[in-house]
Amino acid sequence: MKKFKNSTLKQIYGYLFISPWLLGFIFLTAYPMLYSLYLSFNKVKITADSGIITEFIKFDNYKYAFFTDVSFVQSLVNFLIQLLLSVPVIIVFALVIALLLNSKIKMKNFFRTIFFLPVIITSSSVINELTQQGATQLPGLSDILNISALTATWPVYIAQPVNYIFNNLITILWFSGIQILVFLAGLQKINVSMYEAAKIDGATSWEIFWKITLPAIQPLIIVNVVYTVVLLSAFPMNPVSPIIRDNMFNISTGFGYASALAWIYLIFLLGFVGIYALFTVRRGRD
Amino acid sequence: MERTESKVKSPEKMAKVKRILLGGRGSYGVLGNIFIYMLLIGIGFVYLYPLLYILVNSMKDLEDLLNPMVKWIPTHIYFSNYEKAFKVLNYMPTLTQTLYVVLLSTIAQVISSSLIGYGFARYNFKGKNFFFILMIVTFLIPQQTLMIPRFLMFQKLGLLNSVLSFFVPATFGQGLNQALFILIFYQLFRMIPKSLEEAAKIDGANDFTVFARISLPLATPAFVISFVLSMVWYWNETYLSSLYFGNVIKTLPMQLQSFVDSYRLLFPSGAVVTDRLNESVRMAGTLLTIAPLLIIYFIVERWLRESIDSVGITGE
C-alpha cells in the first residue's frame, strides 16, 4: 500500500518539475503552431478597433508563394544551396579543429578560447557590419590565390560553390564554435586503450581515424548537422528570414501569407533534416 | 616521407631521423608538430582576423583610413571614433537596458531549465518519453514559424514592447534554444548518484528540498554553461527582439543595426569632413557592442571551460 502511494507521489512530483515546460509547450508552442497553421489558410487583416479579422481562402497563400511570389521560392532555393555548402564545411572544420585540440599540444586552453570566441560575439548586426567592410573575407587569401580568376575557367556548378565558400570562409567558420565542443567531448570519451591496441596491431594514424575515431563520433556528426541546420535557419541574415518578417507587415500580404511562408519553411527544414537522417541511418545499416 | 628516407643511408640513422621527424608511439614528431601548430595558428588567425580588423580600424583617423599604406598599424592611436560611437549608440542607457533584458531572460531560462531537466532526469511518469522527444523536436521548429502567432498572442495579452515577451517563454521552457539547456541539465542530473538523494529522503526531506539542497549545488557546471550561452544568445538576438520590443526597448545589437541612421541624426552630414560617417566610427560602434560580452567571456572563460569538460554539451 505504501509503495503504491510512493510511486503515485513520484509521478506527481515528476509532473510538477516539468510543469513549466508542459504549460509552456501547450500555450506557447502547440497552440501558436495550430493558430499559425489556421492563419496560413486565411487572409488576415488587423484593425485597431475589431482586432484580427480572418477570411478563409483555402490554399491561396500557398499557391501565391509558389506560383506568384518569385522571391520566396528563389530565396528558399538559395538557402538550400547555402545549407548544402555550409553544413559540410562547418562539420569538417569543426571535426578538424576538435581533432587538433584533442591531440597533445601546448597552449590547448589558449586555442580553445579563440575557437569559442565567435559563439560569444556572433550576432547578425556584427556580422552585417563586418560583411559591409569586407572583413569576412581573408585579404591574404585573395593575394595568394585569386579564387575568382582560378575558377573562371571551371564549370559554373563547381566554380560557384568554391567561390561561395572562399568568400564567406570566416562567417562559415564562425558558426562552428559549439560543434567543436560537441566533437571534442566525444573524442575525449573514446577509450585510449583502443588506440593503443590498434597501434600495436600496426595501424597507421590515418587508419585509426577512419576505423576507430570516425565510427565512434558518428552519432555526434548527426547531432552537429542538426544543430548547424537549426543555427543557420534561425540566423536573421539567411535568405528566407527577412522575407517572412517583411510579409508580416506588408499590407497586401500580411500575417496570413507570412504564416504560410513560415509553414513552408518549417516543412522544408524538417524535410532537410529528415532526408539527412534517413540517408545516414540507411548507410549505417549497410 | 619517401624523400627523407632516401637521403639517409644507414638504416639505424634513418629510423632515428624518422622517429624524430614523424614521431613514433605517443608523439607526433617534429614534422607532425609543426603541421599541427601551423594548422592551429592558421585557423586561429582566420577566427581572430575580423576582431583584429575591428580593433585596428576603430582606432584610425580619417587620414590613416584613406592612406592605403596604413593597413595594420595606425600612425597614431585615435579615440574620437569611440567618443562618436558612444554617443550614436547612446551607450550607457542602452547598455543598462540590454543588461536588464538579457539578465532577466537568462535567469528565468536557467532556473526553469534546471527544474525541467531535473524532472526528466529523476522521475518516471506517464508519457515521459513522449514529452522528452517532443521537447527535442521543438528545438527544430524555427523561430520564424513561432513568432507570428506569438506576436499576435503577446499583442492581445499586452506582453509586447516589454521584457515580458522574452521573460514569459523563458520561464515556461520555451525560450531561445531552451531544449539545449534542458538537455544539459538532464544530462548532469543523471550523473549525480541517486544514493545521495535517497539518504536525504530517509532523513525526512521532501523532493523539493532534496532538489534545492542536494542536487542544485552539484549542478554548478550546468548552471555555468547554460548561463553563459543563454546570456550571449539573448544578447545577440536581434530578429525577435526588434519584432517584440518595437522601438520601446533597444538593445546594443539593435542600436548597431540602426547605427547609420542614428549617426545621420546626430551628425548631419556635410558640415565638417571629419564628422562624416566612416568605417572607423562604425568599427568603434561594433567593438563597443561586443565589448561587454568579451569582458564577461574572458572573466568566466576558465570556469566555462572546466564546466564544459565535466558535463559535455550534448548527451548520447
Describe the structure.
The complex is a heterodimer of chains A (286) and B (316). Chain A has 286 residues and is mostly helical. Chain A has two domains: 55 residues, no CATH class; 174 residues, Orthogonal Bundle (MetI-like fold). Chain A contains 14 helices and two strands; from the N terminus they run αββααααααααααααα. Chain A has a two-stranded antiparallel ribbon with strand order 1-2. In chain A, helix 1 crosses helix 14, helix 3 packs across helix 10 and helix 12 packs antiparallel against helix 14. The longest helix of chain A has 39 residues. With 316 residues, chain B is an all-alpha fold. Chain B has two domains: 57 residues, no CATH class; 228 residues, MetI-like fold (Orthogonal Bundle). In chain B, helix 10 runs antiparallel to helix 13.
| Total count of domains of chain A | 2
Which spans of chain B of ≥5 residues are poorly predicted at pLDDT below 50? Answer: 1-6
Question: End-to-end distance of chain B, in Å?
Answer: 39 Å
Global Rg of chain A: 24 Å
Order of helices and strands of chain A: HEEHHHHHHHHHHHHH
Listing every helix as H and every strand as E from the N terminus to the C terminus, the arrangement of chain B reads HHHHHHHHHHHHHHHHH
Give the number of helices of chain A.
Answer: 14
Per the CATH scheme, the topology name of the largest domain in chain B is MetI-like fold
Which descriptor suits the 3D outline of chain B?
Answer: flat
Helix/strand layout:
The complex is a heterodimer of chains A (286) and B (316).
Chain A: H1 2-40, E1 42-47, E2 51-56, H2 60-68, H3 70-102, H4 108-121, H5 124-133, H6 139-144, H7 147-151, H8 156-167, H9 169-174, H10 177-189, H11 192-200, H12 205-234, H13 241-248, H14 254-285
Antiparallel strand pairs in A: 1-2
Chain B: H1 2-7, H2 11-22, H3 29-58, H4 62-66, H5 80-88, H6 91-122, H7 128-138, H8 143-157, H9 164-171, H10 178-191, H11 194-202, H12 207-218, H13 220-236, H14 239-245, H15 252-257, H16 259-266, H17 279-311
